[in-house]
What does this fold into?
Amino acid sequence: MPSSLAPSTIVLIKATVPALEAHGLKITERMYERLFKNVEIRDLFNQSHHGETGSQPKALAQSVLAYARNIDNLGAMSGAVERIAQKHVALTIVPEHYPYVADALLGAIADVLGDAATPEICAAWGEAYWFLAELLIGREAAIYRDLAAKSGGWNGWREFVVESVTPESETIRSFVLVPADGGPVLRHEPGQYLGFKLDLPGHGILKRNYSISCAPNDRAYRITVKREAQPNLPAGVVSNWLHDNAGVGTVLCSTPPAGDFFLDRQTTDPVVLVSGGVGLTPMISMLETIAATTPERPTWYVHGALNGRVHAMRDHARALTAGKANLRLSTFYMQPENEDRSGEHYDVAGVITPEWLVSETPHEAATYYLCGPKPFLSAMVNGLKHRGVPAERIRFEFFGPADELTEEPRQAA
It folds into this structure.
């Protein structure tokens, strides 16, 4: 592989930026149409990110555009490369899959741009694609090697048995998973997720990622899943099946822990964990870890829920922070009900705001970890930036294709 792209290729790729701004989404939608004609390749992907919401084509369109804009400064893409590599590992993507994507992408460019997709443009994008592909393949190979070498580690799919099921709220359940082979599990980084593959009647192979909601250990994982309100739409099929059908003894197939959003345990600097709704799952993993290993670390856990009926793991979070002077818990209920008692079940009526975070937490020194719905994250990320929190101390995760949250939220690499 060349160490850099040819100067002529860089010029041609930069010249396609206006076309990508105008037609990028059509190109990625067409790419997936072409790609998913191959059923084996289609089944590699999480179909909940396609179809109704179309979030994955939008995310890819912005990733391609970001790649073109930064083709002469690829260091700016390092974070995106890591996120994509982690996602690919969770989907068991391997080098032989990349040619299928290349054919689909280049074919889609030609389909959408027509005569504007000259042989020179197509050749340049072919070179640019394989340059990025080789970066990803190399990083993914390193991740696979690392996972396989660690105690309890593995590659590909491993069977897990549901050991217990715990209702956490009206809409959320936790599932504790132990290896079917009786061996140990790989200790995850607090905040990472597991990739799952399910073959459901009438739906075929479905892929989903669920955050691990417990601290690292050698024995088991816990995932905490919200039942989606529309069970027949792609995003709700698996969550509803788990709620309705997964019980003690159910076997699930999972890839190893993955993801680049996790607690920095190399420092004891202050941290603020902020979550909305089911975004609490990686935060509980982080909070459990801090409570068990570094309870002296200044930590604020701030969570927002609609009310007590849908607030998962409330008592667990309170137990983790009880009696620990450096672990502080603040809970917001947007619409508290009569049964919700202020000071016992929640602390503040209303929603979490950046103003509150800046006034009540050490924003001059803390690192903020955020997880929740996209509007929530957009408000928090942009609000904290506006109030002087450096971008490098704002880390966030949500469920779906990676976005970059900007002043006017849009999908990006």
Remarks:
- Residues 403-413 have pLDDT under 50 and may be disordered.
- The two ends are 23 Å apart (CA to CA).
- Residues 7-149 form a domain with the Globin-like fold (CATH 1.10.490.10).
- The longest helix spans residues 119-149.
